[in-house]
Design brief:
54% helix, 0% strand, globular
C-alpha cells in the first residue's frame, strides 16, 4: 500500500479546511468603468484572443488540481477501502491525466508558466489523507476532494462565460465536464458530508435567502404544466449525453502540433 510521505495534519472540521478553497475569479469594482480598466491592465493579446488574468489563473489552477488529485487518486486505488472509492480514484487519474495534457499544450501556446508541485495547502491535504486510516480516511478522501471540486465548479463556469480566448474557452469546457464527473463519483462513495458543505456556503454568504416561499405542511401545490415547443418541429438532439448519474467525459485527444508532450 502506497502512502504519501508527510506529517499528519488533523482536521477538526471540513468547514475549517475548505474556506480557502475558493477559486479566484476576476472581480470588478463598483465604480463605473473601473472593472473594465482592471481587466485591460492584466490582459495580453494573443492570436487566439485576449488573455486575461482570470484566464491565466484558470490555466494554472487546472494544472495545480492535477498535481494533487493524481496522487490522491492513485492512493485511493491502492488502498481501496471500498469499491466506490477505488472507482473515484480511477476517475481522478483518468480525468486529470487528460486535462494535464491539454493544459500543458495550451500553456505553451499562450506562454503561461506552470507549477510543477502542488501548493502548500494541497500538500497538506495529501498528508492528511495519507495519515488517516479506516473510516477517517474515507471521510477525508471524499470530503476534501468534494469540497475542492465544489468550489472550482462555478468558477470554471464564470471563466467560460467571460473569456474571449478560444483556447481558454475550450479548456474551461473540458475542465467543467471533468469536474462534474469527479463530483459525481465522489458523491457515489456515500461519504460526502452535504450538511458541512451547505453550512460552509451559508456561513460565507452575506445575502438573505431568496426564492419561492417555503411549502406549507399538508398543503399540496398544483402540478405545473409542461414547458415545451408547440407543434412538431423535428428536433433530433438528446437531452442528456449519458445515463442518469453518469457524466460522459469521452473526447478526442488534444492536438499537439508543436510536440509539447514529447
Amino acid at each position: 500500500m502506497r502512502r504519501i510521505n508527510g506529517t499528519a495534519v488533523l482536521i477538526t472540521a471540513i468547514v475549517a479546511t475548505t474556506g480557502a478553497l475558493a477559486f479566484p475569479v476576476w472581480s470588478y469594482s463598483d465604480r463605473a468603468g473601473t472593472g473594465q480598466a482592471n481587466v485591460a491592465a492584466g490582459t495580453v493579446n494573443t492570436e487566439w484572443g485576449p488573455l486575461t488574468a482570470a484566464d491565466r489563473d484558470l490555466i494554472v489552477r487546472v494544472r495545480l488540481a492535477g498535481l494533487w488529485e493524481l496522487p490522491a487518486g492513485q492512493q485511493a486505488i491502492e488502498r481501496a477501502p471500498t469499491q466506490a472509492i477505488k472507482e473515484a480514484g480511477d476517475h481522478l487519474i483518468v480525468g486529470h491525466t487528460d486535462l494535464d495534457k491539454r493544459v500543458r499544450i495550451i500553456a505553451a501556446q499562450l506562454n503561461v508558466a506552470l507549477p510543477n508541485v502542488p501548493n502548500e495547502q494541497q500538500q497538506g491535504w495529501l498528508r492528511e489523507m495519507s495519515a488517516a486510516t479506516g473510516a477517517d480516511y474515507e471521510y477525508k478522501f471524499a470530503n476534501l476532494l468534494r469540497a475542492a471540486h465544489g468550489k472550482i465548479f462555478p468558477a470554471i463556469g464564470a471563466v467560460r462565460n467571460t473569456t474571449r480566448n478560444t483556447l481558454v474557452r475550450q479548456l474551461a469546457s473540458d475542465a467543467n465536464q471533468t469536474v462534474l464527473d469527479h463530483i459525481t463519483m465522489l458523491e457515489k462513495t456515500g461519504r460526502v458530508d452535504f450538511d458541512a458543505i451547505a453550512n460552509e456556503i451559508a456561513n460565507a454568504s452575506t445575502a438573505s435567502p431568496t426564492g419561492p416561499a417555503a411549502p406549507a405542511p399538508g398543503v399540496p401545490v398544483p402540478s405545473a404544466p409542461a414547458a415545451e415547443a408547440s407543434g412538431d418541429i423535428g428536433a433530433t438532439s438528446r437531452p442528456s449525453p449519458a445515463a442518469p448519474g453518469t457524466v460522459n467525459t469521452g473526447r478526442p485527444d488534444p492536438v499537439d502540433s508543436n510536440g509539447i508532450l514529447g
